[in-house]
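Subject: design request, 220 residues
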């Protein structure tokens, strides 16, 4: 039988290993830092509603003289069969989570971010500031998530493309967003972004800001 001292020692070693792995996983990709003191910054907006995560970028962010309404480019990820083909229900849930299936990448252009127009509130909106290098690295990563440039479908102001990676329990819209944000140097652990709550917790720790706020969407 193990003695108390042996058990305590094993517990300490386990905690140290877990801490080491967590720190290693949250290190920015390639040593890239999200921001540097005094350097110009770019804005990334992350919307989280009951089920979905979306990443948005203000278009013409630095053109403050423009009289046009602010527009946003948004990126999201979903399972093709569920989102485009309507194959939902209990069978759809089991398939989407436990069997790797085709994913789709959504690219949209809207005058309001997803948190402000979602039909599935409550929603939260996170405002993140990163360097231009981090911003460009994030955009390059997102473009690589598209397998083919030929669209599968278009709805409203969104176009859907075949995704490079399949959809499953460990690669949903939340992990998709987490992987992209980590490319921008943010200390996000994609493995732990398995639902809205865990991703939101990481976003609050990564870039606490008074602009991060819950959004109340009036019923339709």
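Subject: RE: design request

Done. Sequence follows.
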């Amino acid at each position: 039988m193990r003695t108390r001292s042996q058990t305590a020692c094993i517990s300490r070693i386990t905690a140290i290993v877990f801490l080491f792995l967590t720190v290693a996983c949250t290190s920015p990709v390639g040593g890239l830092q999200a921001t540097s003191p005094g350097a110009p910054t770019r804005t990334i907006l992350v919307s989280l509603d009951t089920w979905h995560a979306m990443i948005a970028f203000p278009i013409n962010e630095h053109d403050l003289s423009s009289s046009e309404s602010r527009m946003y480019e948004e990126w999201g990820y979903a399972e093709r069969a569920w989102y485009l083909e309507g194959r939902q229900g209990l069978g759809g849930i089991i398939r989407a989570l436990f069997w790797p299936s085709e994913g789709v990448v959504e690219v949209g252009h809207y005058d309001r971010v997803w948190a402000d127009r979602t039909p599935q509130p409550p929603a939260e909106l996170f405002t993140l500031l990163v360097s231009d290098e981090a911003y460009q690295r994030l955009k390059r990563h997102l473009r690589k998530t598209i397998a083919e440039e030929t669209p599968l479908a278009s709805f409203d102001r969104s176009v859907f493309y075949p995704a490079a990676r399949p959809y499953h329990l460990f690669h949903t819209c939340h992990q998709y967003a987490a992987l992209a944000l980590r490319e921008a140097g943010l200390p996000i652990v994609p493995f732990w972004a398995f639902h809205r709550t865990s991703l939101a917790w990481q976003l609050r720790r990564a870039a606490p800001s008074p602009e991060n706020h819950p959004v109340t969407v009036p019923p339709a």
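The first helix runs from residue 4 to 26.
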